[in-house]
Amino acid sequence: MADSFDGQVALITGAAKGLGQAFARRLAAAGFEVVGCDIDPAIDELEGSAFRADVSKPEDVRRVVDAALEEHGRIDLLINNAGIARGSQAGQDWELGLRDYEEMVGTNFFGAFLFGRAVAPTMIEQRAGNIVNVSTDHIYPTPGLRVQGHGGMDLYNASKWALNGLTLDWAASLGPHGIRVNGLCLGATDTPMLRDIAVGAPEEVIATWIQPDDVCGLLLELLSEGPKGRSGHNLGCWVGRPLSLEDSIEVGHRR
Ligand SMILES: NC(=O)c1ccc[n+]([C@@H]2O[C@H](COP(=O)([O-])OP(=O)(O)OC[C@H]3O[C@@H](n4cnc5c(N)ncnc54)[C@H](O)[C@@H]3O)[C@@H](O)[C@H]2O)c1
Predict the structure, then answer these.
(1) 189 lines ligand 1 (CB under 6 A)
(2) How confident is the model over 54-75, as a mean pLDDT?
(3) 118 pLDDT exceeds 80?
């Protein structure tokens, strides 16, 4: 078990608000040096190294990773967190579908792919590292439910399926280099994203949502397992169930 993260460097995408902001604050408190990026100018308020960057643009990704390496010399943790969610469906307008594809798959999947590709060579050289991909419970429904019931989000769901696939494949290919790769497949979590989607949700429903701080707790538990910890796990994080490794259910894990 690793109990101190002092001097380790974490790169978090989408760190201006929501979960990414919570990860940044909690990891900094745990001793990490934090590097964050976002398209939202509010990223400038991050305590740590902040970059305005679009994860779907290869040149932005290279700029962030190169600058992080120049400043810190290493990257111990990559959290592919930046994401966008909106409805989309097979019958929709052609042009709208193309725009949604570019934006949603570009951010949720291509962005994670780019950061993984940009960071992996450094982690391989270090012979150590962690990659955490932030995904959704739309794919791993709450135990007891047959489906989570999110028809009408084909591109969001497919982008996260693809992301979960990266988690499994990278875990296998990077494992021999001492790099762990896991996914957090979250249910409804109280962030600006969900507040925007669920405008008008009753207070009693909002009260059930997962708190970003609880997800941070699970993340730290995962990291604390150290180099021999689990890898290739897409962890289900469900509303109404405890968020801890002991209570988590993994689907499709490698080891
Ligand atoms: N909130 C939930 O209920 C929930 C559930 C499951 C999964 N997730 C996932 O959690 C992650 C974080 O979501 P959140 O709820 O904190 O959302 P959020 O909208 O509150 O925060 C997301 C952040 O990502 C940034 N971002 C968006 N597109 C970007 C891009 N192209 N480049 C750089 N930054 C970009 C946004 O500006 C924002 O700061 C996402 O991947 C999301 O799909 C959220």
Answers:
(1) yes
(2) 98
(3) yes
Q: Residue holding tokens 């590292």? A: 129
For ligand 1, is residue 186 a contact (CB within 6 Å)?
A: yes
CATH of domain 9-251: 3.40.50.720
H or E segment to which residue 209 belongs: none
15 alpha carbon to ligand 1 midpoint, in Å? Answer: 9
Which of 149, 158, 182 shows the shortest CA–CA distance to 254?
Answer: 182
The b/e string for 172-205 (b: 16+ C-beta within 10 A; e otherwise) is eebeeeebbbbbbbbbbbbbebbeeeeeeeeeee
Pairwise CA distance, residues 38 & 52, whole Å: 5
CA distance 164 to 233: 9
CB distance 248 to ligand 1 below 6 Å: no
pTM: 0.95
DSSP SS3 for 235: strand
The string of pLDDT tens digits covering residues 140-154 is 666 666 655 567 899
Q: For residue range 213-247, what is the model confidence (pLDDT) as tens digits?
A: 999 999 999 999 999 999 999 998 889 888 988 77
> Does residue 74 have a pLDDT over 50?
yes
Q: Which atom of ligand 1 is nearest to the CA of 19?
A: 16
DSSP 240: T
Residue 101 designated active-site:
no
Cα–Cα distance between 217 and 208 in angstroms, integer? 17
Complete DSSP assignment for 32-90? -EEEEEESSGGGGG-SSEEEE--TT-HHHHHHHHHHHHHHHS---EEEE-------B-T
Q: Quick one: DSSP state of residue 142? A: P
